[in-house]
Design goal:
Distance between the termini: 104 Å
Oligomer: single chain
Structural class: alpha/beta
CATH topology of the largest domain: Rossmann fold
Number of domains: 2
Helix content: 40-55%
Shape: elongated
Strand order of the largest sheet: 10-9-8-11
Amino acid sequence: MPPDDAGRVQPPVAPPPVAPPPVTQLPVVRALLPRCRFPPPGTPVTVAVSGGPDSLALLLLARAAGLDAHVVHVDHGLRLDSARDGEVVRAAAAEVGASVTVRRVEVAPGGNLEARARAARYAVLPGGVLVGHTADDQAETVLLNLLRGAGLDGLSAMADRTGPDALDSRSALASGSAVDSAGPERVRRPILGLRRAETAAVCAAAGWVAVRDPTNAEGRFRRNQVRHRLLPLLGEVAGRDPVPVLARTAALVAADAGLLDALAAELDASDARALTAAPVPLARRAVRRWLRAGSDEERHPPSAAEVERVLAVARGVAAGTELSGGRRLRRTAGRLRLEPASGGGGQGGSFTAPGTGSGDLA
């Protein structure tokens, strides 16, 4: 120990403590960023954050990617302690320097709580919002849609981005990015390539205690049955983790569906003669896109039965048909026209004009 000017020995000076790296610079965050699909640094984005591990990790990764993030937390009021979720979100947002808006919504009464809560949530979220769906969610969605009897679109599950404003179908095919072309851009899913265990690891590394929603363990929801029973059983039967397999299947099917979408977009679904002359798979897809564009706010696709009834009208088998959503389809001078149904119909059924047949396109 060196002496001071008076010859006294001075104790050594302890080095200053090393500050931990900011959470956006954590090794696990840097390792996962290349597998995310974020817009360029500096882009203003809205991030939907529930307080669960997936959405908290999404927020942290978005800030690590250099995005100008504003957080929106939606309180559905479905639990007595739901306000605590907002506190978790505010604390995380403050740590990464993001602003926060908390919106409380009322979930409409009725069946299918998940669907009603989702509708209430998206009603207050802006277009293009970033959401924290992962590869595990993708695998669950593939299986849920398969159980509903879905075709290519359903087996494609969730796209990275939704809407024609995100990318058109041809660009999506060229870039390898899956896009749902129905309606304006609704959501972006930048961490669809990550696993649920990885988002939990991000939160753990940041020292964040995520919200655990007890309803995620309730067997009354079909998605929970798929998550906790079906996927583990498939893993046992296959001898491997089924999530990457199902996610890869969704990506492959999405590419085929994207090509069909691009071809169907060139077909005028209101032209009865063109619709009749087109290959049936393209005609069905063109009708589905047309009907979906004018459906409810969530742009639910029409049923297979509705599509077939529209094709029957195009072929002249029927003069018109009732559709869901209180709509009616008529054929006039070779054109198919959608109009409000008189008397609040929409439960299905076609009406045939006398003397019409499959060759009558008048």
